[in-house]
UniProtKB/TrEMBL annotation:
It comes from the Bacteria. Belongs to the pseudouridine synthase RluA family. Signal peptide: none annotated. GO terms for molecular function: catalytic activity, acting on RNA; pseudouridine synthase activity; RNA binding. It comes from Brevifollis gellanilyticus. This is Pseudouridine synthase RsuA/RluA-like domain-containing protein. InterPro entries: PsdUridine_synth_cat_dom_sf, PsdUridine_synth_RluA-like_CS, PsdUridine_synth_RsuA/RluA, RluA_PseudoU_synthase. Pfam families: PseudoU_synth_2. PROSITE patterns: PSI_RLU. GO terms for biological process: enzyme-directed rRNA pseudouridine synthesis. Residues 17-173 form the Pseudouridine synthase RsuA/RluA-like domain.
Amino acid sequence: MADVITQCPVLHRDRFIIVINKPAGVLSHPNSARIDPKHTAAFEGRYDLDRRCFEGPAGKVWLIHRLDQDTSGALLAALDEKTADRCRALFEEGTIQKHYLALVRGSPAPQGTWLDHLATSRGGGGVRTQVVKGRPPNAELSYQVKAHSAEHRLSLLDIALITGKTHQIRVQATSRQHPLAGDDVYGDFSLNKRLRQSLGLRRLALHAHRLEFKHPASGYKTVIDAPVPEDLSAAFKVLGFGG
């Protein structure tokens, strides 16, 4: 068997970058130098936390951003260090646009912008984020409601993530009484139980469905779409949201 760079579906690959469709349950990167055999990571090989680089049998891969383990979707990496530096600069400049689909409880306004100050703490082997009132915003997203089910009291949001804080979408949604379906940390646990029975939904309903950016080598506009996973697509169809 030939050496492989990832076990995840590849959405785009050229000499400079690779974009994969990370499944829910797969880590963007291991939390230590050794990959836990119980959890696969987005790319193959040993991971250098300081350099944010995988080194595997098929070569080196530099991770550009992260998705939570429970979140699926488009994940960008670079295939050389110079390209990695350029991609990270694009993130710092805010020129890489990240779009998510999120299934939430209730009926948010048809469109809007959420601004909050988020603080993240670590302890007990986990990470938690919360909204801190009275401090300048450091987290921003905008959204549009794409579909709504009055019967199930659920809405499908298309979210443009402006900043990239840990658990940002989940925490900002919950703070507005619109927790994400399937969120077993910040969510509505009775809702999650009901949706497991009615929709067969057994995961966080959050998917990074699109990346838009200037290619770090050519400068051309690049748009990468990540197909919605079958489990989420099936739930959306039950809700009458189509594919």
